[in-house]
Amino acid sequence: MFSAAGGESMQLGESDLQTGAADKRRLSGLGSLLLACIAVQLAFWLAINPLLFASAKRFEIVPVHSAMLAKVASPDPAGFASAQLRPVDLPTSDCCGPGYRLVQMQFDLSAVPPDGLALLPTVGADNFHIRVNRQWTRQEGRLDLVNPTYHGNRKTIHYISPGILKSGANQLEFIAMRAGVP
Description:
two-stranded antiparallel ribbon, single chain, six-stranded antiparallel β-sheet, 10 strands
């Protein structure tokens, strides 16, 4: 029993003491839960994540240079032969009407990688095909203005076989098609 302000006496009953003990247990349980969450997060970010998501090796980026662009009448050897290529800086944009575009660029290799190369192109076209050293490496879908396919909108990694690469200068060509006005 103790006195409150004003001389009134208060008594704490057993239920009041049990409520205080329950509050302490609840706070203790929340503290334990918080510590367990922190421990799980630390274990994941410091031990598990680096093992699961670490890259086995860093990839070397092969720079391209001497980019050229032309509008072509058709996406075939005759269209390529008549192309009036002009130099461009990358990234480039040739907007906006329907038609075919040829983009040529060079890249240099000191030696042919035994596993080939991976190419992750970003091309703003309805569809495109890729040639490396005048050999097709990607011909997905149709380059047809009347009946187009839209494979150019998919972001995929393209494999360039070591069999078509050579030491020194290599040529990379994108033949792009836009069937409509954006």
